Structures
1.
Amino acid sequence: MKSLMNRLKTMLGLDKGDADSSALRPEKSTGKKDGAEDKWTEIQRLLEAMPADEREELMAENRSDCICPNCPSYGEPSAEKREALFCCDGKSQSIGAVEDCLCSGCEVAEKMGLDHSRYCVNGNEREQRGL
Ligand code: SF4
Ligand code: SF4
C-alpha cells in the first residue's frame, strides 16, 4: 500500500517526472528538528493544496481508524457525540481528564507524522505546536 505522502503526491500530480513539492513547503520551519514534525508539516501543505472532497475523504478514513473509542479516558458522553480524531478536530467536549492515552499506538499518528498526544484535553496537533 502507498504511504500517505505518496498517495497525496499522486493525487496532486507531484509524483511524475521531476515534479517537486518544494513549492508546497512552508518558508519557515516550526523550529523543532525531528523528522516526524517535518512529515506533519509537509502533509499539511499537501492537504491544503488538494481538492476539498479528496481531503475530506482522507479525514473520514482517519476518523474511522481513530482508536480513541478504545481509550479508558473515552466515556459514554464522547460515544454519544461520536467524538474522534481529536488530533485534527481539537479538544473533546466531554473528556475532562486523561487516565492514559493510546495515541502513540494509533496508525493515524504514524501516518500523519503526529508529535504529541492527549489531544482530547490538550488540543489538536497544530495547537500543541503553538501554530
Ligand atoms: S492519534 Fe489519537 S486522536 Fe488522532 S486518530 Fe489516533 S487515537 Fe485518535
Ligand atoms: S486523545 Fe488520547 S487520551 Fe484522548 S481519548 Fe484519544 S487516545 Fe484517549
Note: Residues 17-31 have pLDDT under 50 and may be disordered.
2.
Amino acid sequence: MSQINFRILGGVLLGIFFVTFILAHRSSRSLEAKMTSLPKQSQSMAAKPKSKAYLSPSPLVTRSDNGDIVTTVVLSPSMSPLSPTINVTPVPTPHVSPSTLPTLLPIPSQSPSPTVTTPPLSPSPSVPRVVINEIAWMGTESSANDEWIELYNDSGYAVKLTGWMLKALDGSPSISLEGTIQAHGYYLIERTDDTTVLDVSADLVSAFGHGLSNAGENLILIDNHNEIMDQVDCSGGWFAGDNTSKSSMERKSAESLGGASGNWVTNNGTLKNGHDQAGNTIGGTPKQSNSISG
Ligand SMILES: [Ca+2]
Ligand SMILES: [Ca+2]
C-alpha cells in the first residue's frame, strides 16, 4: 500500500511539472508575437541610420510591469545645437597697382612777364623840364651866407624829386632833393635854415657844404636815373648877378639851355619877392616868376 501511494504522488508531481512547463512555453511565444507586431513607424524610426539621428529624436520601446508596450521619445544627447556656425570669409583688400595712380603732368613754367617800360617823367636833357631857374650865389643883405637856389618845373605834370641831386662838379655843394615840384611850380632851396628868405617857405633846407663860391660854380641837376637834367656851367664865373646890390642871377627861359650865358640876367631890381632875415627886400624873386622872364 505504501508503494502504491508513492507512485501516485510521483505521477502527480510529474504532471504538475509538465503542465507548468507547457504554460511557460506558451507565455514566451505570446510575448514574441506582440513584439513582432510593433507599429511600422517605430520600426522605421529605429531603422534610421545613426548618421541622421541628430535630426530626429530616437524612440525607446519598453515594457511596463503589467505587460503593455511603452514608447518613450528621448532626445539624443548627441543632437547638435540648432544655431548654425557662421563662417565669415574675409574680404580681400583690393590691391591698387601703382600703374593705376594718376600721372601728374608737369606744370608749365610761366613765361616771364613782359617788361613795361615807363616813360621817364622828365624828357631828355636837351629839352629840360625841371631846370635851375634862379641862383642867389651872393646871399642877402643880411648875410652873405644866406644863399638860396630856385628850381622850376616847366612841364605840365608834377615831378617827384626823390633821388634827384643838385650839386657842383667840385663836390660842394651837393644837395639831395626830396619832395615834389608841382607842374609849372617852383622849388626853393634855402641854405642852413628857412629864415634865409624869411617870409617864403623853403621846399628844402640844406647846408650847401662850403656854399656857392662867388667865383662861380659848375652846377648840374641829376635825376633819380643819374641822368643830367640841366647844367649851368659857370666854372669860369657867374653869367649874371650882383654881389654889391645882392641881386640874384635869373634865367630868362626854361626852354633854353642853362649853359648858355645869354639865357641869364641879373634881377632888374623892380620885381622882387620876400625879405631876408633882417627884413630887407630880397634882390630876386624866390618862388615867383623871374623879373625878366617871358
Ligand atoms: Ca624861407
Ligand atoms: Ca624866381
Note: The CA atoms of residues 97 and 293 lie 89 Å apart.
